[in-house]
Amino acid sequence: MEVLGFVGIFRTMRYQYTQKRTFSEVSRNGVLPVLIVGAGPVGLVLSILLTKLGVKCAVLEKSKTFSKHPQAHFINNRSMEVFRKLDGLAEEIQKSQPPVDLWRKFIYCTSLFGSVLGSVDHMQPQDFEQVVSPISVAHFSQYKLTALLLKQLENLSFHVHNWEGGEGLNHGHLRERQILMGHECLSMDATDNCINVTASFLKEGKYRERNIQCRILVGADGAGSTVRKLAGITMKGEEDIQKLVSIHFLSKELGHYLLNERPGMLFFIFNTEAIGVLVAHDLNQGEFVLQTPFYPPQQSPQDFSPEVCEKLIFQLVGRELLDVDVIDIKPWVMHAEVAEKYVACDHRIILAGDAAHRFPPAGGFGMNTGIQDAHNLAWKLASFVQGIAPSSILHTYDEERRPIAIFNTELSIQNFRAAMAVPAALGLNPTVANSVHQAITNGIGSILPSGLQRAVLDGIFTIGRAQLSEYLLNEKNPIGSLRLAKLRRIFEEGKSLRLQFPAEDLGFRYLKGALVPDSDSTQDALEVPTGRLRDYIPTGAPGSRLPHMNVRLRLSNLTSEEISSTLDLVSGDKIEFLLIIAPVKESYQLAHAALKVADEFKVSAKVCVMWPSHTHTGAEMSCAAGGALIPCESYVDVVEMEMELVKKSSKSWSWSWSWWDICKMTDKGAILVRPDGHIAWRAAKTGIVGDPILEMQRVFSAILGV
């Protein structure tokens, strides 16, 4: 590897770009740069990211208080990586979540005190070894996550105003760093200069209205998004897949039993009295959510009183509990839909999270996809608001995130169907149940009185659940033996509901947007989801997440080091691009060109020199770097670290992987990383051919759209 000293010769080349007045300046006139509707995890994460990037924003939330219903609970690898950038949030989640041994399994049983039909362990040794990511997945209830996000916002000087009108607020203007509870978006009107939002709130027993002016309106207001409806954006896909009731309850007695006897995250329970899925949010605290289907109009949410729900819990547990406390009962509808577009009104109205996509909960893609929406959107909003890029950069949010949502929708449907394979193997085909319900509701059964319709439906379901009787479902019964054998094959072949999707969680890739595809790229579509477990394969291809590798970071005093992930080289506090190069003469030339051109584009850039693992971190690095990048301050030297990989057979060995091997490149190449940690461009194999200044101008122009 060539480490000759090189001093870049800077050229002066005029590149025209008109700097526009920033929205932060405009906000002094009372127009808020960004207004976020919705204070769920997506809206709160976006407000944190924007504030850290210097963008003024505020949040409206129609609910009067923050929900204590656990809701989403699985946080995947990529979302945890995003949280690592939020001032210790990931570490706080890891410290506060239940121990992994209490939630790593899905358990299938006839009751919680009854026979176990099978179990699936969703965690593998490599999940904890930080080979492909510096952090593991987490099991952490949504309301607890919300509390931690609010703590972060409080540290950023945000104020939460209660639903009684927000005393002390100016009714004409909304200042940044405010969260207004009990404020429902009623209307929005776009003018040439801003968007006028009208929100209603309750004060002294009367509903009043507040008008708010903003430049950008982000709808992160959930599956029933008001912003989406007011913008006239429709959803496409499969709606009303299934209706369910979510029952939030506490029982330390049940938690203590499961903690000691059969710990798990999800319990799929099938017996002659009832069918349901129990989510164990925290066994130590005895906090659970029971999901059970219901079939309107023969059944209604009002049928699920606390007393009825308590009886249902006992039927699924297999015995009565002395301390059951039903906290909340919420009906909900499962959809699989994606908004026809994410950006509207000349890039001024944007959707994120469940407002943009509604998935079946199978696989936990909903909240995670939304958090990654916010991560993708934040740096683009900041680039626009701060005058670095034109509004067209916001269109790349749609170009990049919408295909991912469509992919995740299909993957969620496949995973949901995999979940349905288990009851089908036991003789309970959900498709038949839905067909029976449709026949009663819309077919010949519709002529019957409603009470008789319900009786018929209940009777048919009772007959169906008889398939689960101990008399039938046992190894001595020929039918039961065949069904149990089929069930075992489903588990052994990995065809049941899956928790983790490494290839999709970390390996999703943007094919077009704020990036420069490889010149020889022939891939023009995302891979078709399979629903099966696939390993994540790192790559340096444009649009991919920057691969993780532990490196030794050379500190400025040239005598000390610290171990860090390559992901930590990307700044979370400013719009900064990262160029990763090897200590090669031509790459140093490229580095000088990148820094010069980034300055022309009014954007920050940093160079990372990736040294091989055998490098002696002393005079060798100092000499080469001193001749190549000093006196430039925007660079850092790092040294590769060897990685230990563990096979599923538990045989382990050490593998010395070069960074460039991981990226499937040579050390003549270079990688330019965006502020969200995705690769924007690369010189894959032979480096730059031609003038590096011209190439970097082409690259930054394509990424920023200027």
Which helices and strands appear, and what pairs or packs with what?
Blueprint: H1 23-26, E1 32-37, H2 41-52, E2 57-61, E3 74-75, H3 77-83, H4 89-96, E4 105-109, E5 116-121, E6 138-139, H5 142-155, E7 159-161, E8 178-181, E9 184-190, E10 195-203, E11 206-219, H6 226-230, E12 235-250, H7 252-261, E13 266-270, E14 275-282, E15 287-293, H8 306-317, E16 325-339, E17 343-344, E18 349-351, E19 357-358, H9 365-385, H10 395-425, H11 430-442, H12 450-465, H13 478-492, H14 502-507, E20 550-554, E21 561-565, E22 576-581, H15 585-600, E23 604-611, H16 619-628, E24 635-640, E25 643-646, E26 652-655, H17 659-662, E27 670-673, E28 679-683, H18 692-704
Parallel strand pairs: 1-2, 1-11, 2-8, 4-13, 7-8, 11-18, 22-23, 23-24
Antiparallel strand pairs: 3-6, 4-5, 9-10, 10-11, 12-15, 12-16, 13-14, 14-15, 16-19, 17-18, 20-21, 20-24, 22-27, 25-26, 27-28
Helix pairs in contact: 2-5, 2-9, 9-10, 11-12, 15-18
